[in-house]
Amino acid sequence: MKLLLAEDQSMLREAMVKLLTISGKFSEVIGVADGAAAVKALNESFDAAVLDIEMPGMTGLQVLEFIRSQQLTCKVIIVTTFKRPGYFEKALNLSVDAYVLKERSVDELIETIDKVMKGQKEYSPELLPMMLTKNPLTDKEQEILQLIGKGLSSKEISSQLFLSDGTVRNYTSLIIDKLGADNRINAWHIAMDLGFIDL
């Protein structure tokens, strides 16, 4: 497994590259000092990238945005000390694979990498904004979101739930606002990832 590590603090970066390499889990660990260097390194193929959220030039979120825009298969783990809801929402909207605290051991980071390589998501609970630690969706909103996830249009949902098309659209707008999503499908993904709705 080939890993990219973007961290602007040189001592921390060098120590982490050494420890991750020693673990024997990775065929190669490449360390870079900032977001621009990470984007340049991504000319090569990586299985996973561990990105510090705050870096000079380009942030971890901007690198994540680049990875998604280029449709690279690389899994992305954002590490942060910042508990800013806006950062977390942006990372969720870009389908980040893991969003975790920086102050954790290399062993814990390796566990997170293992998880995301298996297709799982991980978010450090301490970093979830208050509005997202408790389910902000009403029962009706959850019901509508589940039907959105099944591919139903607003008209089909209104027919199934005996509501007007306008009411369903209003509910959908509220759901999108509450979850800080870009659109109805993105809202469904966020709610699924956070366990607010079931399949």
Summarize the structure.
With 199 residues, the chain is an alpha/beta fold. It contains ten helices and six strands.
**Largest sheet, strands/sense/barrel:** 6 strands, parallel
Q: In whole angstroms, how far apart are the ends?
A: 31 Å
Mean pLDDT: 89
Q: Treating each run of at least 4 consecutive H or I residues as one helix, how many helices?
A: 10
Contiguous low-pLDDT stretches (5 residues minimum) are: none
- Spatial order of the strands forming the largest sheet: 2-1-3-4-5-6
The count of β-strands is 6
The proportion of residues forming helix, as a percent range, comes to 40-55%
The topology string of helices and strands comes to: EHEHEHEHEHEHHHHH
| Rg from Cα | 19 Å
Shape: elongated
Would you tell me the structural class of the helices and strands?
alpha/beta
**What fraction of residues sit in β-strands?**
5-15%
